Amino acid sequence: MPQVQKDFNDYVVELLRYTMPSPRQDAEKEIIADALFHNGDWTESLQIYQALAKDGLVDPADDWILASDYICLLSLGAGPGEAERFIENLPESVYQNRSYLQASNHYRRMGNEAGEVAISLRRIRSGKWTTFGDFDHLGQILERNLSPRELLDTLKQLDREFQNMPVVQWHLLKAELKLDLNEDAALRAQMLLKRKAIGQYGFSNEKDYRAWLQKIAGAPSPWLKANEIRAIPEHYHMYLQPVGEIDLELLDAAADMASRFFGTRIIIRPAIPEPTQRDVYTNDLSGYVGQTLLRYLASARKPPEDAINQLFVVNRRFLVYGRGQVRDLYRMGLGTVISTDLLQSHISDEGERTRRLAAMIIRHFKYYVERSQGISFDDAPNNKPCVNTQFYFSQDPKFAYCPECVANYRNASWDQIHAFVQALPMKIAFQPDYGSRPKIRQSTIDNIKSYVDEVQAAMKGIEEAATGH
To answer: For strand 328-331 and strand 335-339, is the pairing parallel, antiparallel, or unpaired?
Structure first.
């Protein structure tokens, strides 16, 4: 602590003592104890807190702010035994970012690496943090105490929370190299080399670090179509679900193009009727309200049991509050829907219309790949001109995945994607506070049930017509 700060803290403590003469009120004692704590007078501060706790006036195990300070006080003023008993018995509900940080600091201070690793892993898995402290030190102790695979999985969890932090990337890169995941390591090195500042972890200067990364990166990773990365298992299938009157010739051509991209046939299901309920439409009836529409469609037409993708296709544009009129929409818990309206009204070239619709079909599978693996909107790649880019056609597009999307597609679990799609629609999507507008009303739930009955009746009629019964 700088001497100027120490002198000021001494002054504050003396002032408090002068203005709060004995006998002091309990609240005044706590104020002085807090001031002593921040001044580094651990023993005296601890004695005051312990006396207050003994009288039942404070409970460090029930106050997350006091708990973190109390861990520090026990560590510095009482010894490791008392501190560790308090850490071990502290309820999980009281543990917050500061408590975890002070517990980690205690074990580090005592040279107890096993204890530090255990509390750090507990903290990582809890997700309770706003900062972690010394990431490089954390990476080093995890590397010494975890198996290579456990280390990689733990670092990936950290990376999801602290996206692209250079020090986490450095330790991830080393873990991938240790496991001979050379393609993943090369991609990570290429991403690091794009940054203006990356530090110098493990090297005497950043220039040497960049030279080493360049060797790992090698040639730029290729942009690939899905069928060039891996095959989709034969027992899983992709589906398109037309709604209302759709240009089936255009949809067939686009589905064929997307099928070649994925290396599997995309199945077009029989069309279901459009909802007629008023709340699905905008005020002028020119289009749909996107989120409400998806609630209706997802409820009425669940994915087939072998589906890893089902995409609804409509012939009207739709409104998304805050975004205006759009041509495609994904909503967590509901799925995806695209519109052919803007393509047919604004693009005269048939080949270009087909290509753009195929690109929309391809791009919307990314949501099931990414969300099923825990990759959020914020963390997802958005590299123009990748086919998965939000505004794909705003620049010269490539009909392929960028290296980051290649890695996500290669590493995704088909079973997790399947489970994610089969869970649609999810209950969260029908909660009143889901999204900003529109709010769920009982009348909406009743209307959805009515539409479900209409769709089921229509599908039954199609089946009876096909079988002659």
So the answer is: antiparallel
